[in-house]
Write a structure and sequence with these properties.
Blueprint (H helix, E strand, L loop, with lengths): L11 H13 L4 H13 L7 H13 L22
Helix pairs in contact: 1-2
């Protein structure tokens, strides 16, 4: 079961900022508030480095897949044999 929370006497400027942020992230104000609370209240030691890096990349790219450049053939290994 999930808890419900009602916030009273919220400043209009805070509500406006939440609405704008939610629109930027493509979600509802309610979902954005949940995300903010989770980011702040979930202990950061439970999130590993890779998870934190992934979340930052997703935030920067908007969740879009990035195009990877084509790789060229690897260089030949050096020959250390003496003649």
């Amino acid at each position: 079961m999930m808890a419900m929370l009602t916030i009273r006497n919220l400043d209009d400027s805070i509500k406006t900022q939440l609405r704008i942020r939610a629109a930027q992230h493509g979600c509802s104000m309610e979902e954005e508030a949940r995300r903010i609370l989770q980011q702040i209240l979930v202990p950061k030691q439970n999130r590993g480095l890779a998870t934190r890096i992934h979340q930052r990349v997703i935030a920067l790219t908007g969740g879009e897949d990035l195009l990877l450049p084509k790789r060229s053939a690897p260089r030949a290994s050096p020959d250390f044999a003496e003649d």
